[in-house]
Amino acid sequence: MKASAAEHDGAATAPTTGRQRTLWRWLKRGMAVFCFVMVPVLLFMLVRNMDWQEVSHALRSYKLSTLVLGAAIMLASYLVFASYDLLSKRYTGHDVPAPKVLALAFVCYAFNLNLSSWVGGIALRYRLYGKLGLKAATITRILSLGLITNWLGYLLIGGTVFASGFPNLPEGMKLGSTGLRLIGVAMVLTGVAYLLACAFARKRTWRVRGNEITLPSFRFALLQGATGALNWALMGSLIYLLLPAKASWFEVLAILLISSIAGVITHIPAGLGVLETIFITLLQGEYSKGALLAALIGYRALYFLLPLAISCVMYLLLEQRTRKSG
Q: What would the pLDDT profile of 108-166 be if each residue is shown by its tens digit?
């Protein structure tokens, strides 16, 4: 009787768990669709009275030296981005030469930022690394370490900035400042917890779905955090460079960090519309909408479109070289 009762309970639990998963899946899809629809609506409401002559004037007012410096910041950021894969090379011990790793990673991150992680971050990496002889398990470890590096940097720099009281929210959102500070503290603690685990954990290797996960050393984890944080700092510096000198660098960086996570949640490629909506909403008290939109257009041109154009050429070269070597 006891055995049959247990079987009955198990049979009752399984459908319930299945329904919960299905419900959660549909809720996530519903939220994604809602955000996908609402972001363009909010952006339209913000820019419907835009003075497009002001936007055009602001874009034409950028000095050549500013654009060259912006391009240099972009290249520095992408090199740091690509160095995530150099860390992964050291972590996995694969034998692909460092110059090829940097070129491949540059291409993948440019496609990732413009066309979504499924295209650039995942599919393209498996294709290019696979052509260079790496096994799927190794490529998975490269992907995993790159994600950890990026988001560890986000946790550390973003948590520090939010906990310090940035961004300075508009009057109608002031109540959210305390919550954002608490989120910042939680982010820093999460990042520190990873670093401490790498320093003191006794068990350092696990197997998850057939893949082996090994904690790196404490020094390696520190390098991950510093590299990830530096990349986010460079991205914020590019937008700060293109804006008139009013808001602080920390303010601009904090808003970029908020818009980046919002872009991930909405699943909109390149966060198109999300970045603009959040920046205009949070900074319209300090800048005109025209100046803000001009800076964001310049940012997209320098940080998204220019690297994508470069990476298309690099991708063709990589494909040609791997075809010849094969």
A: 999 998 887 777 778 899 999 999 999 998 999 999 999 999 999 999 999 999 999 99
Radius of gyration over every alpha carbon of the chain, rounded to an integer in angstroms = 22
CA gap 134, 91 in Å, rounded: 14
Query: What are the φ and ψ backbone dihedral angles of 155, each rounded to 5 degrees?
Result: -60, -45
**Can you read off the two tokens belonging to residue 163?**
């906990």
**Is residue 217 classed as helix, strand or coil in its secondary structure?**
coil
* Global pTM value: 0.83
- Pull the structure tokens for residue 228: 């990830």
- State the DSSP string of 127-145: HHHHHTT--HHHHHHHHHH
Long-range interactions of 209-216: CB distance < 8 A, separation 24+: 210/137, 211/137, 211/140, 211/141, 212/137, 212/141, 213/144, 216/91, 216/145
Q: DSSP assignment of 29-66, as one string?
A: HHHHHHHHHHHHHHHHHHHTT--HHHHHHHHHT--HHH
Question: To which residue do tokens 């494909």 refer?
Answer: 319
Inter-residue contact 252 to 73 (CB < 8 Å): no
Helices 98-115, 64-92: crossing angle, 10 deg rounding: 120
Q: In 164-288, where does DSSP find H-type helix?
A: 176-200, 218-242, 249-266, 274-283
CA distance 24 to 322: 43
Domain definitions of the chain by residue range: 1-48, 54-325
